[in-house]
Structure formats: structure tokens, C-alpha cells
Specification:
With 595 residues, the protein is of the alpha+beta class. Helix 5 packs across helix 10 and helix 7 runs antiparallel to helix 8.
Length: 595
């Protein structure tokens, strides 16, 4: 089945998830206790002391509704006590299509988009957390949607007639797409049954569509042992322990007096901002997480689309790791020696190296205009293709124009070619079962302490969407992921636990720390090196020295700016707004950008 016009348009956006338990305390890591500062036009929603709409009666017997609820209704209230019951088994929703509601705010969606995927998933409970057995991208039984599940919370409220209560975050993603639509579910349970389940989706990161989804669905609890439950609990405990310390963005002004908080997130339309933050001295100061109905209950677990930050945080890191493990000549390998489809290209790939492709300078293109090729119809064909064969054929369908290394032409399809080349090279070293994305997970993401929600990638449709990793897009981040990657690059010089993971020369070039390798010129100011953008700053901007700020960027308005003072400033949004100068100047107050 070819993807619909809507999915194609979303793809084009890549351009420009019993027995009683009495824990000693309720956990706080994933809860809405991080009350981040909302935009000026959004009311502050305090953590509730009880639920006025999603009451015991409402969840058991149903209630009248015509829109999503305030997010506080799905938030663990203050004064809650540990859950009296342990949830372990399958949660199955019934009537996903019949009980679906959708309000379209922007774009075009048919009625087939309204319903959730068929929902029947296993969960275990661990010290007050509700942990899904399957994490990362789940290829769902639905014509449109896939799903990501994230850990939530369980607790006890006085008005719930002895039942325990649960709430957890999830994300739906159009098949073949990187776009995210974030929501939460909540329900009551005991050791035998559950109430009806309320769900709502009230926030997204996609440049094409805005929509609310909600419903109250019948559900069945299938209690019973979940295979590998004890391992899931042990792994989740380790995942929590590995999280960086998180403080609300307001605390930044307390920890560093004189810093103006309004600079962070400035220049981004509030309604389009997913979350933002500043990583300072190992602490992740987190803001945002606003939805159209209040503060998202699980800010730290809010998955957002990578878009082209994957070019830097996946493909470039893969190249750096391969070069560190197998030798610094890996970037000089020729594409045509590893990707056989290059022979059928109308372009000339005879002298194009891995390094040329990571720098977007293959010499094969139609137009030298800024983003003209990337925004054109031919790239629409690339994004709308599904199988590997279609994808790679579209990626190579560009004529020869100049020698490699001379002209910067940004094309996501080139990153797919390089991703394939890296996979074939890895297989030449490790055998035919090797997979380049799994290599990055095993060699970088897992040792870095990223959780399993980051361990899946968008792939071609072969073998039920388990084909070649896309590379140029198709990952999903939470704030902790971005903060840790920022520290790896900007503070730890590519080392994890003191061990050199990333090839130092490639990393230095990517971060503009090698004056002999600035990469390829984008325009009169900017450079592009190893999939990292870079802007120069100096006395013209009021500083006392000259320096570069490298960035990972995503077309929707995703920015990860690696400041030379060791601070990482990031935000993810979907109105294609790119600005960090104000944040950079405030970061200079925390630690000088110039020595």
C-alpha cells in the first residue's frame, strides 16, 4: 500500500510511544512535579489534589464529553498514596474505532485517522511505576498509526473506592513518518479488572498537522505473569538511575542569579514549542511541555521527532565510532564500493567518499540553489517511497554537476545512501547480520545511558518495516537523550566512562575545533561539517573573541546548539523557527563563551 497524501506531506516536513504493593514512597522522576514556566498566554495549571472529572464514577460508568480534558485530570495528584494493587499483565482496549474522537486544527485528515491503533500491550509495575514491556517504535495493526509507549505511574486516591489508579504517556506516529502526536491514558484497576480507559492526544511535533484526539474506551485487564518481568524491572531501575539530574527551568535563575529566563525558548511561537532546556554542569534544566490543555503530565518522557538531528546524532556518530574502531581511513572509503546501486545512477559516484556525503558535497545535484533540490518534487518521490529498492533508486536519481567536495547541496536522500554504505561496511567487518543502527545503540546509546525508547529507528517497509534504517531522520528523543548526547559531544570529547568512543579528529572537525577542517561552505557565514551546522560569532555580535557554534538541526524547528563554554541549549518545535542568539548571550553569564 502506498502512503497517503497526508503521510507524504508529513514526510516532506523532514526537509526544511495481582497482589498488594506498599512501596515506601511515591516516585517523582516522571511525574508532573516539574512545573515548567508556560508561555505568557497559557494559565499555570497546578498539580491537582483530586480529579473533578475523571472520578471513580466517570471512569466506571462513563460521562459526557466533547473535547480533551485539562491535563491535570491525568496527572498524579498531590497527597496520593502508593497503589494498593500491582498491575501485571495485558491491557486491552475495545472499540478503538467506534469510540474515537478527533478535532482537526490544521491540515487534512480523513476519518481513518481518528482511531488509535489496536491496543493490547503488556505492562509490569515496579515501585510505583507502570512500565510497558515493549518500548520504542511498535509497528501497530492500523492502516495509519504506529505507537510508542512510555513508563507511567500508579497510585491510590481516597475517592476511588479501593481501586488503584494509573496514567502513562504514549505517542502515535504515522507509518513511514517521523512526526509525533503525544498523549496520555488513565484508568482504575484492581487485581482482576480495570475501569474504562480515558485517552487524549493534545500535542504534536509536525509541521503539517495539528489535531486533538480523545475517547473513553471499554477495556479488559488480562492479569498474569509477563515474560521477563523481573528483567524489565531491573532494567528500568537502572534506566532511572542513569537519568541526568533534572530541574525546572525556573531553578536556573536561582542557581545562576542574573540569568534572564525569557531568553530560553525565545523566538519560538509558544503554541509550537514541545520542550526546551539547558544542560549546565551535568544538570538538565527543562522547560516547556505545554499542550493545548495544560502541562503534559510526563514532561521528562515526552517523545518528540528527531527529524534531521538524526543525521548528526545517528549517522555522523556511526561514522565517528567506525573510524575509532576500524581506523581513521573509514571516511575516505568510496560509496560505489559499498552501495552497488551507485552504478545505475545518472550521477558520477566514482570518487565520492563517505566524508563527501556526510558533508553534503557529492557533486551530484540538479540545482545549486539553497534547498532547491531538497524541497523539490524528486525528493517527494524519495520520501513517499517505502521499500529499500524504491528508496535507494530515488536517492541516486541525480545528475553529475561538479567534483565532489566543492558544492554544498543538502539532501536527506544522500544521508540514506551513506547509511546504507556504513551498514555494508559494518557487515564487511562483523558479518551479514550486522545492522548500523543497532551498532550505534550497542556502541553509543546504551553505554551513554539512553533508555530503550531510543533504541528503534524508522526503516524501509521491507520485512514489516524492519528494513534499512533511514538515517537522515526517523528517531524519537526525550530531553534526557538530547542532554546526554550533548554532554558526550560538548563536554566529554567523545568519551564514555573515560573510554574514547568517537574518533577524535572527526569529532573535532564536526565541532569546528580543527581550523584546518571547517567543512563545506553553506553561504558567506555558515559551514557544514560531518552533518553538523555551524555559525561564526565574534566582535560584531558583542563578544571579545571569535568562536563557532555547531548545531544539530531538524527541519520543523529542532535545535541542539553546542556552545563553546560547554553548555548545550536545545529546543524542539514545529513552526520552523531557528534562533538561539538570545539564549547564547544568557548562557555567557553562566560561563563565559570567551576565555
Amino acid at each position: 500500500m502506498k502512503i497517503s497524501r497526508f503521510l507524504w506531506m508529513i514526510s516532506l516536513a523532514f526537509l526544511a510511544a495481582c497482589t498488594a504493593l506498599q512501596p515506601t514512597s511515591i516516585p517523582s522522576t516522571l511525574e508532573a512535579g516539574i512545573q515548567t514556566q508556560p508561555p505568557a498566554d497559557t494559565p499555570v495549571i497546578p498539580t491537582p489534589t483530586s480529579h473533578s472529572i475523571l472520578t471513580y464514577a466517570a471512569l466506571m460508568n462513563g460521562f459526557e464529553f466533547d473535547s480533551p480534558l485539562n491535563e491535570s485530570e491525568l496527572t498524579r495528584p498531590t497527597g496520593a498514596t502508593p497503589a494498593a494493587y500491582v498491575f501485571e499483565g495485558h491491557l486491552e482496549l475495545l472499540g478503538e474505532a467506534a469510540g474515537a474522537n478527533m478535532q482537526l486544527l490544521r491540515g487534512e485528515l480523513g476519518p481513518e485517522y481518528a482511531s488509535l491503533p489496536e491496543f493490547d500491550f503488556s505492562f509490569v509495575q515496579s515501585e510505583g511505576y507502570l512500565v510497558p514491556a515493549q518500548r520504542g517504535l511498535i509497528i501497530a495493526v492500523h492502516p495509519i498509526w504506529n505507537i510508542i509507549l512510555e513508563p507511567g505511574l500508579t497510585w491510590q486516591e481516597a475517592g476511588d473506592q479501593g481501586y488503584s489508579r494509573a496514567s502513562f504517556p504514549f505517542t502515535i506516529i504515522p507509518k513511514g513518518s517521523n512526526a509525533t502526536f503525544n498523549g496520555s491514558m488513565s484508568f482504575l484497576f484492581d487485581d482482576r479488572k480495570v475501569s474504562r480507559v480515558w485517552y487524549q492526544i493534545t500535542q504534536e511535533t509536525t509541521t503539517q498537522t495539528r489535531a486533538n484526539f480523545w475517547g473513553l474506551l471499554d477495556a479488559v485487564y488480562h492479569p498474569g505473569p509477563v515474560p521477563g518481568a523481573e528483567d524489565l524491572k531491573v532494567d528500568f531501575k537502572a534506566e532511572l538511575a542513569a537519568h541526568l539530574p533534572v530541574r525546572p527551568i525556573e531553578q536556573l535563575a536561582v542557581d545562576y542569579p542574573g540569568v534572564e529566563l525569557s531568553a530560553f525558548g525565545a523566538g519560538v511561537t509558544p503554541a509550537h514549542l514541545t520542550w526546551y532546556g539547558l544542560v549546565v554542569n551535568g544538570v538538565n534544566y527543562l522547560g516547556g511541555c505545554q499542550t493545548r490543555f495544560g502541562v503534559y503530565p510526563f514532561c521528562e518522557s515526552m517523545r518528540t521527532t528527531s527529524y534531521s538531528t538524526a543525521k548528526s546524532a545517528f549517522v555522523s556518530l556511526a561514522l565517528m565510532r567506525l573510524a575509532q574502531q576500524y581506523g581513521p581511513d573509514v571516511p575516505d572509503r568510496l560509496i560505489q564500493e559499498y552501495v552497488s546501486e551507485a552504478a545505475a545512477s545518472p550521477g558520477d559516484w566514482g570518487m565520492v567518499t563517505f566524508n563527501h556525503v556526510i558533508d553534503m558535497s557529492t557533486g551530484n545535484y540538479s540545482s545549486a540553489g539553497f534547498m532547491v533540490d531538497e524541497d523539490g518534487q524528486k525528493m517527494g518521490e524519495f520520501f513517499s517511497s517505502e521499500s529499500y529498492a524504491e528508496h535507494i533508486a530515488a536517492a541516486f536519481d541525480w545528475p553529475h554537476a561538479t567534483d565532489p567536495g566543492q558544492q554544498w547541496i543538502y539532501r536527506t536522500s544522500d544521508t540514506f545512501i551513506l547509511t546504507r554504505a556504513l551498514q555494508v561496511y559494518l557487515q564487511s567487518q562483523q558479518g551479514p547480520q550486522a545492522d548500523i543502527f543497532q551498532f550505534v545503540v550497542d556502541e553509543i546509546y546504551r553505554p551513554l545511558g539512553l533508555g530503550p525508547g531510543a533504541f528503534t529507528s524508522l526503516r524501509t517497509a521491507d520485512n514489516n518495516w524492519q528494513g534499512q534504517a533511514k538515517g537522515g531522520y526517523g528517531l524519537w528523543w526525550i530531553p534526557d537523550d538530547i542532554a546526554k548526547i550533548g554532554i558526550l559531544l560538548n563536554n566529554d570529547q567523545g568519551k564514555i566512562g573515560g573510554r574514547q568512543i568517537l574518533q577524535p579528529g572527526l569529532l573535532a572537525a564536526a565541532l569546528q575545533q580543527d581550523p584546518d577542517d571547517r567543512g563545506v561552505r553553506i553561504d558567506s557565514q555558515r559551514r557544514y561539517n560531518n552533518a553538523f551546522w555551524a555559525n561564526p560569532y565574534g566582535r560584531a555580535q558583542g563578544f571579545t573573541c571569535d568562536f563557532w557554534v555547531p548545531q544539530m538541526l531538524g527541519v520543523s524547528g529542532n535545535v541542539v546548539a553546542l556552545l563553546p563554554n560547554g553548555i548545550t541549549y536545545y529546543y524542539f518545535s514545529d513552526n520552523r523557527e531557528f534562533t538561539w542568539d538570545a539564549a547564547m548571550k544568557e548562557a555567557d553569564k553562566i560561563s563565559p563563551l570567551c576565555p
